[in-house]
């Protein structure tokens, strides 16, 4: 499930407590978490609702100006069920603290290397992408993909894997190497 920055900010400050989705079946479960650019959002509940019963107060809790706006925002087949997804704030994105690490131990360096080897299992790409991010900070994903001869959406997914290891940061446009990523590359001599 994708949340907009406005919704995620609203969850963080307590003004947004739910979103509505039209799905054939629920795609999230209570207890799931979503790691977003703003932090971690918890899925508190998933409840089927009658769309005609959504009120303006419900819409306000979803960060929308009216029930009509909520209904207009629903995607998917008109006959599919509508769900109210209750949201809660889970805290800061743990990748921020991870990516700030620069004094890496031998064990941490070995762990990063082993994880990258696993990511490279089918086709080596990790170090090439890290070097490209270092050489072209802030380059749009489409341009970076073209530079590397890769498909844009696959590249974005791969860069997210590097971000999960604390090696890259996402910018408004493009990416940059994190302090942890720079320390790893420096230790490797690349």
From TrEMBL:
<dbReference type="InterPro" id="IPR036390">
    <property type="entry name" value="WH_DNA-bd_sf"/>
</dbReference>
<protein>
    <recommendedName>
        <fullName>ASCH domain-containing protein</fullName>
    </recommendedName>
</protein>
